[in-house]
Each structure stands twice: as C-alpha cells, then as structure tokens.
Specification:
- By secondary structure, the protein is α+β, with helices and mostly antiparallel strands.
- The strands form two sheets. A four-stranded antiparallel sheet has the order 2-3-5-6. A two-stranded antiparallel sheet has the order 1-4.
- Strand 2 and strand 3 form a beta hairpin.
- The longest helix has 22 residues.
- The N and C termini lie far apart (about 35 Å).
C-alpha cells in the first residue's frame, strides 16, 4: 500500500540512494543571491553506474546581473550530463544557481563557470551547459560550454554526445526546450 494523502510519514529511500549526506533537501534553506558557491552543490551515487545514460536539467528562470551596468539579465540555463559515479542533487543545484541572481558576470563567463563547477564536483563523462539569454541591445547571447572526462575514448565521447542530443531532442519535442 502506498502513502496516504496528508500522511507525514517519510517514505523510505529508493534502493541504492540512501540520501545520506544531503543537507539541502528537506532542511532549512538559507538563500544567498550574490555569491554562487560550488561548495553548496551536493551529490548522490549514480543509481545506474553500469550503463551510459543522460541527465537533463533546465532552469527556466535563470537571472544574473550585467557586470558593467548592473542591469538584470534573464535567460534559461540547460545542463545535460552523462554521469560516471555521481549525480547532482537538484535542490542544491537550485541554491547554487540562485547565487547568480545578484552576481555580476558576462553570459559567457557564467556558463563556463557553471560547467567548470559542475565538472569539478561530478567528474561526469561529459557535461554541456547552454545559456539561452534574452536579447539585450538587440543581440541574444547563447553560449555553450562542453567538458569531457579525459579518460574517455573518442568512441565513448561520440556515444555520450549522442545521448545528450537524444535527451535534447526528447525534451524539445515534449516541453518546447
């Protein structure tokens, strides 16, 4: 029998994912809007480490500030990665991304920093971060950053890129990404 609506009894953890060590999920949340900090990113073990698969994360309401004018910049941030041993916990990612809200940075630097921070924390086989920013001054800036695990063979990299393209295609057809 499944959970009863209104029942506050916690559900048992999913097999292979104890949630041990996760502090952002289910706890009191402290928000920082001006300091993106990779130390806030939390991870859990890859639930399917024997096969290549992709994770797609879309932040529809990403904001940052122009480092010159201080004006807000709005956009979407799409993160796709092929995990090796770790996956990012989504609430910690949200808290990390919120740190850009009042942080001045150029779009290109922002997308590359997010890719670098996630790559350092996750050590994925492949990660792609795409920024789809609203036009400013009539020009839309859409930077893409790609990081690949140096131990991957060219064949593995091609396969991982195909996985990311499939994830993008499926997401676009079902949600208009």
């Amino acid at each position: 029998m499944g959970p009863v609506p209104g029942d506050s009894t916690p559900l048992p953890p999913a097999p292979g994912s104890s949630g041990a060590g996760l502090t952002a999920l289910g706890g009191t949340t402290s928000y920082r809007y001006d300091h993106p900090d990779a130390a806030s990113l939390e991870t859990f073990a890859n639930p399917s480490p024997t096969g290549a698969w992709a994770v797609s994360l879309l932040c529809q309401e990403f904001t940052t500030l122009c480092p010159v004018t201080g004006q807000p910049d709005y956009g979407r941030l799409r993160i796709d990665y092929v995990p090796r041993s770790l996956c990012v916990e989504s609430k910690s990612l949200k808290l990390y991304l919120i740190g850009y809200r009042n942080h001045g940075t150029f779009h290109e630097a922002c997308v590359n920093r997010v890719a670098d921070d996630l790559y350092q924390v996750l050590s994925p086989a492949l990660i792609r971060v795409y920024g789809d920013f609203a036009p400013r001054g009539g020009i839309a800036i859409k930077p893409v950053a790609l990081r690949a695990w140096p131990g991957s063979s060219p064949e593995d990299r091609r396969h991982h890129l195909e996985l990311l393209e499939q994830a993008l295609s499926l997401s676009a057809s079902s949600h208009g990404a």
